[in-house]
């Protein structure tokens, strides 16, 4: 039943829209109908995916598939790296199997394999059909024109820069509001390859982790559209039009798709690994500098403690109990300043005494998006190639898009928190 915890989450739903309204370029043009439509789509998808037995079975199937994909990936990793990839056969005594989890060998290879499989599914037109279906849904329910609707759908599965590739020929013709919306949605969602990686990280601490991560990326797209439209309202000249999938990504054969997909995946793996090393190192430098100051509250000052205090009120608005809000707020800060990878890794290490299962589920939705400082550079670089004539325009709006993308995942978490626990099988 709906209770005070669900009502608490509604606070976050209205807060995220209010913050974006304060940042709006035209506060008199609030998209009321879009707000109702976007929230309705989010709630409808949650109820559909978790409230219908057939859909629940499908989500459990996704979890089984992710587990099988992870195990199969480890077969390949152990073939190349041997005992370094973990496994039962170790040349030394193992006091805890958890110590065998190495990010470079357990998570990054999954991204590589999923990128190759995505290319293969695209060549077989399976992923293309799924993208077109979601594009049609977004066009009809969110009032988007054809090309932006298609790019929004593609972004869910392909990534923040890869999605717009499929409407590359249209990018120079998009309105400023539509361009801002694409950047914001890109930061609000994640790619198919990282979805599997996040599920791999969380599978031991969150029931049906794969289902939640998949749902999070899908339903954050309408939130990203809404908040972007609040900040940069749509222009009256926008009209609906039919859309066609631009053939920007083609493969000569299945083997060609696997080879090129592996190459693309290697680029993603290197970028993710290098970014994590550099940003975590920079935070380490900052923590050491802050450590020079006297202790506060019996503990040294750190970036994580500061972020926990700053974002604790926001975490409470999402539906997190106040006793857990500082821990959850720190995760939100880590996601924004570092990356969602760092935040998910920390979430997987937090025990049930610090975060309840409901709070862990809400935070999974809040963290599942590319809205972090590193993505600002990724978007500027990506759109400079895709739409060079609009580079300065992108630079001028990318930081606002970061805010919209960050708040979009928070809005999604609020919607999930407002849904009675019985829908997810809880008490």
Written description of the protein model:
The protein has 427 residues and is mainly α. It contains 18 helices and no strands. It is globular and about 70 Å long.
**Major sheet description:** none
Proportion of β residues?
A: under 5%
Domains (count): 1
Order of helices and strands: HHHHHHHHHHHHHHHHHH
Spans with pLDDT under 50 lasting ≥5 residues?
A: none
Instruction: Based on Cα principal axes, name the global outline.
Output: globular
DSSP strand tally = 0
Keywords:
single chain, 427 residues, mainly alpha, 18 helices, 70% helix, 0% strand, globular
Secondary structure layout:
Layout: H1 4-22, H2 32-51, H3 53-81, H4 103-106, H5 108-123, H6 126-142, H7 146-158, H8 162-165, H9 176-188, H10 192-202, H11 209-231, H12 254-290, H13 303-317, H14 322-337, H15 340-349, H16 357-367, H17 373-386, H18 391-418
Task: Write a brief structural summary.
This protein has 427 residues and is mainly alpha-helical. It is 70% helix and 0% strand.
């Amino acid at each position: 039943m709906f209770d005070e915890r669900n009502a608490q989450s509604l606070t976050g739903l209205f807060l995220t829209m209010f913050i974006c309204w304060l940042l709006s370029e035209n506060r008199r043009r609030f998209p009321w109908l879009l707000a109702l439509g976007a929230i309705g789509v989010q709630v409808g998808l949650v109820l559909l995916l978790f409230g219908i037995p057939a859909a629940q079975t499908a989500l459990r199937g996704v979890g089984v598939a992710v587990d099988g994909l992870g195990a199969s990936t480890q077969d390949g990793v152990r073939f190349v790296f041997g005992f370094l990839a973990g496994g039962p056969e170790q040349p030394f005594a193992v006091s805890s199997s958890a110590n065998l989890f190495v990010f470079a060998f357990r998570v990054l290879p999954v991204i590589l394999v999923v990128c190759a499989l995505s290319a293969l599914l695209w060549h077989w037109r399976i992923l293309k059909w799924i993208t077109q279906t979601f594009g049609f849904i977004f066009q009809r329910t969110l009032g988007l024109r054809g090309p932006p609707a298609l790019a929004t759908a593609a972004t869910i599965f392909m990534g923040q820069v890869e999605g717009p590739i499929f409407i590359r020929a249209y990018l120079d013709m998009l309105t400023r509001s539509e361009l801002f919306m694409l950047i914001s949605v890109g930061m609000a969602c994640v790619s198919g390859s990282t979805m599997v990686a996040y599920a791999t990280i969380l599978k031991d601490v969150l029931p049906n982790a794969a289902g939640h991560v998949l749902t999070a990326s899908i339903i954050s797209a309408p939130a990203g559209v809404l908040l972007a439209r609040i900040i940069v309202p749509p222009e009256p000249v926008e009209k609906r039009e039919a859309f066609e999938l631009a053939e920007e990504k083609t493969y000569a054969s299945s083997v060609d798709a696997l080879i090129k997909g592996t190459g693309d995946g290697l680029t993603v793996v290197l970028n993710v690994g290098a970014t994590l090393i550099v940003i975590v190192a920079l935070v380490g430098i900052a923590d050491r500098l802050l450590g020079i100051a006297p202790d506060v509250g019996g503990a040294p000052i750190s970036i994580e403690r500061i972020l926990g205090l700053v974002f604790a009120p926001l975490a409470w608005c999402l539906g997190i109990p106040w006793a857990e809000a500082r821990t959850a707020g720190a995760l939100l800060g880590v996601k924004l300043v570092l990356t969602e990878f760092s935040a998910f890794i920390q979430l997987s290490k937090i025990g049930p005494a610090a975060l309840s299962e409901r709070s862990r589920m809400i935070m999974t939705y809040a963290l599942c998006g590319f809205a972090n400082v590193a993505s600002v550079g990724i978007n500027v670089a990506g759109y400079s190639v895709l739409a060079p004539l609009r580079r300065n325009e992108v630079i001028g709006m990318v930081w606002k898009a970061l805010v919209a993308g960050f708040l979009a995942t928070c809005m999604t978490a609020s919607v999930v928190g407002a849904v009675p626990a019985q829908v997810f099988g809880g008490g």
